[in-house]
Every structure is written in structure tokens, then in C-alpha cells.
Amino acid sequence: MKKVEIENHKYHFNDLPFTENKEVLEYVIYFQELYQIIRNLIGLIVNKNTEVRTTVGFVGGLLDRISESIMAISYLSSKRFNRDSAVVLVNLIELRTDLKYISEKPKEIEKWFKHEKKNYKPWGFSFQINSFEDKQLIEIDKTIYEICSMAKHGNPVGKDIGFNLGISEEGLFYNGNGDSRITDYLQWAYFYGVDAIESGLKIVQEHGLEFPTIQKDLKNLEMKTKSFTVKILERKIWDYVYQENPKIKELDEKLEKLTREKEKIEKKIKHLS
Q: Which of 141, 151, 242, 250 has its CA 20 to 30 A from that of 123?
């Protein structure tokens, strides 16, 4: 609880409880490290003060916003606002896409600085990703952006993507625990955050700036998250298997129970001998 005094009136603010989802909390830890890497990179870019217009004005500016999005997603997910994490993720994806686009087409930077329209950005999202060199990632980008956009805009087509409570073809649905896709959102946010850093590094390298410490820190963080990502993927696969084949889950639970009982018996025998 936090106490605040405003114009001689005292107010009490109760903080919301943290989620008990350990996967989410582990992501929060990694997001804090990712945030610090981005802030360090911004500091290095500003200190070099080379080609300020592009390196600081564009790369530094976008990375600054991305670092805010990273921490906003971290906080929202830790407080169980799962769907709102996807809302902020839309912004993160768009900012990363701007960086990636310029990293592959550096001459387009002039359109960014000369842009004067208030109701839309220099380039559309679809136009940008369709120009990317890695064609295999285009459909992935489109799908992720589509899912997060349905959450952001409350598109009825998305059903439980956009709402906890609503109507589908099967009837009324309600999910009191919030959007179950939270680990997907966090995994995507991590991927786009890393990709934004790599795109930013590529742009500043064109202006003679090299930051090996940032690359090293990023590599170390990716090594930490690799086994964690595999663990989540395995869990999701088994969730799907159990959903499609409930009897398999029942058998696995019985096997786990028998294994525990066997271990107890073995300990007793060992104690008696």
C-alpha cells in the first residue's frame, strides 16, 4: 500500500497482487535484463554522438520507446493483465518493424524525417514486412500481428483473444484467469525486442559504430533463455496432447503416482536394511 498526500488530502493506493504463474515471472526477470541492454545501447549511441540524425534521432528514439514497451509488457503480465500485454505488443512490433525496415533499406530513412502526415506513418506494416529479405518470417509476422491486433481492437472474430466473456458458436464463454496466451505474448515480445536491438546495431554499424559489449550481453541473455523457451514449448505440446487425448493424461497421472509410491517403498526398505 502506498500513501500519497494531494492538496492536504491523504490517499491510499493498494497495489495489485503478482501473478503466481512461474513462467510469466521468469520472463519478467529476462525482460529486465533485456531492458538494461537496450538502455546501455542507447547510452553508448548518445555518447558517440556520430551521425546524430540517424543514430540518435532514429535508432535511439525507437529503442527508447521499445524499452518502455518491454517494461510495460513486463508489468502488465506480472499483474495478470494478459490481454493488455498484447495491446502494447502491437506497438512494440511496429517499432521493431520500422528499425528492421531501415536496417535493410537505409536509404528510406529520409522518408522518416520528411514525413508530415499525422494520421499514418511513412510506411504501412504489410508493405514493410513484405519487403523483408527473410521471406519465411513474413507469414509468422503477419499471424502474430493479426492475433495481437484482435486483442487490441476487441475484434469479435477473435472471441477469447479479445474478451474474457462473450459468445461463440459453442455458446457463452468465460475465462476468469484472463488470456491463456500470455506465454505466447511474452515469447513474441522477447523475440521482437532482441530483433529490434540487432536491427539497431546493424543501422549504427553503417555509420561506423561498433558495440561488441552489447552483442556479448545479448548473446549471454539468449543462452539463458534458450532452455527456458524449450521447456515452455514442451509444456505446450503436452497440453495439446492431453487436450486431444484425455486418457493419456489420466494414465500419466497414475504413472506419476505409482512412481512416487515406489520411491517411498524403496526408502522404507533402505531404512530397514
A: 151
Q: What would the grid cell of residue 160 be?
A: 477469447
pTM exceeds 0.90 for this model: no
| Residue 265 falls inside a structural domain | no
Amino acid, res. 215: Q
Beta bridge partners of 228: none
In this structure, is residue 256 part of a structural domain? no
C-alpha 180/C-alpha 173 separation (Å) is: 13
Residues 168, 155: Cα–Cα separation, whole Å: 13
Question: Tell me: the pLDDT tens digits for 20-41?
Answer: 889 999 999 999 999 999 999 9
Type of residue at 87: V
Residue numbers of the domain that contains 152: 20-248
Q: Which residues contact 199 (CB under 8 A, 6 or more apart)?
A: 96, 99, 100, 102, 103
Q: Which amino acid is at 147?
A: I
Helix axes 61-78 and 82-104, enclosed angle (nearest 10): 160
DSSP string, 78-96: HTT-HHHHHHHHHHHHHHH
Whether 193 contacts 41, CB under 8 Å: no
